[in-house]
Structure to design on (156 residues):
């Protein structure tokens, strides 16, 4: 969250640049009152003393090969912020990639979940095969996982 610790109103606005770690792919940024692009968000309205702008939300896709703790970095520029940054370490607890609905069981419900993602009826988070999109190949992989075909679900 961008805050103004000064006793003066910051009148120049701010830019926050997102730098996702190598184990994560930036999907989108958004926040109330922010104008966000592919990798940054901007505001031009003044920020009163001791006030904060609303938070920026970051959606990332986590690589199925990512491990440990991934640390996200946001850099802030504007109204006197020079070299200001914030970090957000996130420990990863990856489940079976075929468990799309995260209920700890690979079942027909996961196949339907993946179909809904592939059709655009649900946010496409579960790129099981790593092709950059959720498609019929991911649905087939999860179906093979339900059928318990050895090696069907990529190892974590």
């Amino acid at each position: 969250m961008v805050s103004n610790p000064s006793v003066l109103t910051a009148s120049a606005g701010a830019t926050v640049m997102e730098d996702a770690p190598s184990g994560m792919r930036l999907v989108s940024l958004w926040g109330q009152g922010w104008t966000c692009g592919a990798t940054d968000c901007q505001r031009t309205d003044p920020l009163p003393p001791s006030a904060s702008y609303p938070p920026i939300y970051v959606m990332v896709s986590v690589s199925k090969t990512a491990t440990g703790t991934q640390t996200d970095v946001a850099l802030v520029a504007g109204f006197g912020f020079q070299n200001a940054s914030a970090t957000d370490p996130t420990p990863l607890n990856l489940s079976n990639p075929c468990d799309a609905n995260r209920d700890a069981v690979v079942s027909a419900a996961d196949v339907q979940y993946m179909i809904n993602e592939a059709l655009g009826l649900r946010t496409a988070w579960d790129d099981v095969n790593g092709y950059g999109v959720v498609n019929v190949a991911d649905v087939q992989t999860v179906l093979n996982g339900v059928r318990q075909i050895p090696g069907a679900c990529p190892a974590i």
